[in-house]
Amino acid sequence: MTGLTLYTNPMSRGRIARWMLEEVGVPYDVEMLGYGGTMKDDAYLAINPMGKVPAIVHDGRVVTECAAICAYLAEAFADAGLSPDEAERADYHRWMFFAAGPLEAAVTNRALGVAPSDEQQRMVGYGDYDRVVSVLETAVSAHAYIAGDRFTAADVYVGSQVMWGTQFGTLPKRDAFLAYAARLADRPAHVRASALDDAAMAEMQAAG
């Protein structure tokens, strides 16, 4: 046991947490959970009552929600250099939580066929999908990375949203998104994490 455990499924947002753990570079254990099965068992609900992955447990402390996991790991393992410096801090927090809030909501609603009316746009945090996409495009175009010229934990979270979005069609394949995704895709930690999750997915599928 390492004192750090990832609860995940390779066909979930747990891939974000896995990437972040590989960036941090510390040993961790993995518990693979199945949808509708172990993910809803009492043992896991005691860790995350939402019955969703990912979650991490670090020395008895539970962290859920991908953006929170990324931020927590960056702070808990500061030697990895993934937390923002003073100049990066504002953009780091701004865009990580923009991706966790307005972007996530806008993309999910669009996938569900939900389009708020002009009046309803004042009630929802993202306004409308097109505005969110344009704001995100400007953000990823401003610097090489989301908080500046250096990779941080915010790029794990925002970058995952952009890579998945352009791959699965929930974001348009604009040049700025594709260029940003390309800067991240070949990072050794991302390559390792993807290989681990792809292997776990194949194993789970083979097991039926």
Short description:
This protein has 208 residues and is an alpha+beta fold. It is built from eight helices and four strands, in the order E-H-E-H-E-E-H-H-H-H-H-H. Pfam families: GST_N_2.
Give structural notes.
There is one protein chain. The chain has 208 residues and is an alpha+beta fold. It folds into two domains: 4-81, Glutaredoxin, CATH 3.40.30; 89-188, Glutathione S-transferase Yfyf (Class Pi), Chain A, domain 2 (Up-down Bundle). It contains eight helices and four strands, in the order E-H-E-H-E-E-H-H-H-H-H-H. It has helices at 14-24, 42-45, 66-76, 89-111, 129-142, 153-168, 175-185, 188-207; strands at 4-8, 29-32, 55-58, 61-64. It has a four-stranded mixed sheet, with helices on one face. It is globular, with a radius of gyration of 17 Å. 35% of the residues are buried. The mean pLDDT is 96. Residues 1-81 form the GST N-terminal domain. Pfam families: GST_N_2. Residues 85-208 form the GST C-terminal domain.
